[in-house]
Amino acid sequence: MQRAPHHRSRSRRGLAAAVAAGALTVSLLGGNSADARADTSPDPDLVARMATTLSLPSPPGGANNVKVLVFHASAGDEAPYTDAGIAAIEKIGLSGPAAGRFTTVATADAEVFTNGKRLGSFNAVVFLTGGGDVLDPEQEAGLEAYMEAGGGFLGIHDAARTEPYSDWFTGLVGARPAASSPAAVQRATVETGDRIHPATRNLPLEWKRPDRWLNWTKNPSGDVHTVARVRESTYRPGASANGWDHPVSWCRDYDGGRSFYTAMGGTEDSFAESDFRDHLRGALAWTNRTSQADCKATITSNYTAVRVTRPNKPGKNDQIGEPHGLVTAPDGRVFSIGRGGADSSVPVVTDWNDPNIGRGRGEIHVYDPKTGKVSLAGALDVFGNKGGGDELVKVEEGLLGIELDPDFASNGWIYLHYTPHAKIDRDKRMATRQVSRFTLDPATGRLDTASEKVLLGWPVQINSCCHAGGGMAWDSKGNLYIATGDNNSSGFSGGYSGNNPQPNYKGVAFADARRTAGNTNNLNGKILRIHPEDDGAYTLPDGNLFTGEEPDEGGGKTRGEIYVMGVRNPARISVDPATDTLYAGWVGPDAGAPSTTWGPAKYDTFAAITKAGNHGWPYCMGNNQPYRDRNLPDPAKPLGWYDCEAPKNESPHNDGLVKLPPVTANTIWYSPQGGGVDYPRDANGVPSYKVEDQKQLLPWLKGGGQATMNGPVYRYDAASDSTAKWPAYWDGKWFVGDFYDDTQPRHAVLTDPRTVGKGGLPTHAESLKKIIPVGADGIRNLMDWKFAPDGSLYVLDYGRGFFTSDSKSALWRVSYKGGGATPAAEDLVGKAAAQ
Question: CA–CA separation, 630 vs 322, rounded Å?
């Protein structure tokens, strides 16, 4: 290795003037360079002249023998970690697989950037600088010409303080440190969100390490591809904290070359860490062209969201019904359903004496991306059009869910989850909810309603709204999951546990979810799992929560179809095709704040489910936070706290088991107080429920008006030649969202395989709000989202009202246009000759 002396090897033009003006001090401390001095980026003509003068090969560096330049000049004292950093990079270059080895040359002499022959011999340049203005215009122009020729750049820690007045260099490093970044070394947790990039794929999901953590004047996420973030809740970030999205390592294809920056490495000891060296090894592999990587995957401008359906014609649902779910077919067609609400101009029958009470039209529309056209595949008469209003007027029944048979391409079978109008009992105000199989006629593209085979039906009360659920999904074994709501009123409990036994209509309680979600003998408030058979019947797979043959403890019974009990309103569920893990989300009750008397505020919930279980409602929510019991004769007075480890259903409306399975903690929960709210607990395990005591375990979540909309787990298809597919970065990430687009989740999250399904928190979250656009002209009211076979994402926007379709009701398509990994295969070291 060649090493220049560790001091500045030449005089700097203008340095004295910079010191006199105080600019040097600003550059060393950080801050917004644009506010300190005008942009000193090289003039484009100068860059062009330098490119001609330098005559750099494209790409720079050897095709087989790799050289890496470590530049370590500083405008003041050399960075204290310089020697350790050079030694670590040298060791990385001498170790590991032969294909990844390289020669390290270290220098503080900036003239290297005006020496074409020397500069062109390096595959990558590392800035191990201590900050400040270290390049004159010609030298910076040389560096710019090097990048334009396809060079690689790696900046470490204080490199972000270098060339503070150059906008071009700001773009190269990606962000500038805030002047008030904490100076102390602190131990913190790094979330490694990119499990594909060689710089992070071998690192722990949650990487605990000490360093000096920089804050940013502007968050670069969305303009760069962030591969790792630091979790601010694990250290003291100071007054200029960036919040939950605090990038520490990122990359981008920049000006023809490749740029990687890591804010880590601010201490000498960092370079002795094996994991940090592995981080640098992967970053160098990409920048020096010995490995490809995708550094475009989370850059906002690489995604395009297009509305693919037009507004309905007045008085008609010719494009889309009241959006309530979608599914994609193997041939790329998108089937979307309308729950039953009509255009607002259509009269709604709300008189129970009228035979047409609540009659609606559940519609199945089909969008064909090959033609760009929408057709109506069929419609069902449903109970589901009672309109809006108070609890005894509105309704959430109707056409609730759709799935295509795994062999749909050959048999044309479609499964619909709906409430037929023909089966309502107006006297008792009861209805039947059912899952039926229909056949789509391939010749006409229409649903053959005469082909209906009812697989499963169960009673629901329709005197009082709400919570019908509706989502369905398949696993790899051909089992069909069916999500059902608790069929319970949102009122009569102050917004806490839905456990009021008092109100009823003709003997059927409609505010006591212990009758439904907490009842082992009732199919409401559950996720069912059945195996449909070809004859239209179904069998029960092994591993459900009950066999259906449990002893009648306490006079109760069980239903063998139940896979998950204790859910409130699971509108959307999905199954990861790679692992068969079930993902679900459900809406919580309405309490805006916790109560020391009744329990937690509303928790909207997401759960990754790996086995049958009880997820708590109406006894416990979140991470096993209990509610207070209430009972007759005065349900306004509290009884004891529920026991999440051994809950009992002592409702007078329970016809199932009294002793219930223990409650499984959920994965994600959020309320108006924030995400993953937790409290200290007393000796009996009861939380304090005092806002001043709360701790937010998931700070990326903020609540308010909220309604979960669970999404898919993305699986990347390397064999697909689609130019619209989302990149491999998203593989294995779980998409969680909310109906509302303000401060609510619209994120892709990572879970730890060791704790998933056991209440383990997500290890990382990535906002999707710039990719799946929010706002008045964007996707404001997310109702469902699914990936198509071509890897693009389809999203349903409900519209801007309730129980109707309107001009904003729409199907959108979000596709990726960033292209493949870089560098190009022919530019990889050692690969060009082999091709």
Answer: 37
pLDDT value for 32: 43
Q: How far apart are CA 484 and CA 525, in angstroms?
A: 5
- Domain of 269 in residue numbering reads as 2-299
How far, CA to CA in Å, does 560 sit from each of 457, 612, 834?
14, 11, 60
CA distance 280 to 202: 12
Q: CATH number of the domain at 70, please.
A: 3.40.50.880
Q: Is residue 784 part of a domain?
A: yes
pLDDT of residue 413: 98
Beta-bridge partners for 154: 126, 260
235 and 139 belong to one structural domain:
yes
Q: How many CB atoms lie within 10 A of CB 600?
A: 27
Tell whether 257 is covered by a domain.
yes
Q: Is 548 buried (19+), middle (13-18) or exposed (0-12) by CB count in 10 A?
A: middle
Query: Does 276 share its domain with 329?
Result: no
- Pick the last residue of a domain from 275, 299, 323: 299
Residues 65 and 6 in one domain: yes
Contact 93, 103 (CB under 8 A): yes
pLDDT in tens, 632-645: 889 999 999 999 99
Asked if pLDDT for residue 566 goes beyond 60, the answer is yes
- Can you give the pTM of this predicted structure? 0.94
The DSSP 8-state label assigned to residue 293 in this structure reads: B
Is 719 within a domain?
Answer: yes
Integer-rounded Cα radius of gyration of the chain: 30
DSSP assignments along 9-52, one per residue: -S--TTHHHHHHHTHHHHHHH---HHHHS---PPPHHHHHHHHH
Give the number of other Cβ atoms within 10 Å of residue 99's Cβ: 14
Place of tokens 């590991």: 96
Question: Do 237 and 344 fall within a single domain?
Answer: no
What SS3 class is residue 170? helix
- Band (556; pLDDT cuts 50, 70, 90): low
Residue 716 lies in a domain: yes
pLDDT value, residue 98: 86
647: cis peptide before it, omega within 30°?
no
The whole-number pLDDT of residue 20 equals: 30
564: number of CA atoms within 13 Å, CB side?
32
What's the token pair of residue 642?
């529920």
Domain count, the chain: 2
Residues 26 and 88 grouped into a single domain:
yes
Measured distance CA(337)–CA(342) in Å, rounded: 13
What's the length of the chain?
835
Q: Which residue reads 């989370």 in tokens?
A: 298
Residue range 119-156, pLDDT digits in tens = 999 999 999 999 999 999 999 999 999 999 999 999 99
C-alpha closest to that of 401 among 453, 468, 451, 309: 468
CATH of the domain at 318: 2.120.10.30
Beta-sheet pairing, 469-474 with 446-461? unpaired
Residue pair 760/754 in contact by the 8 Å Cβ criterion? yes
Amino acid at 115: N
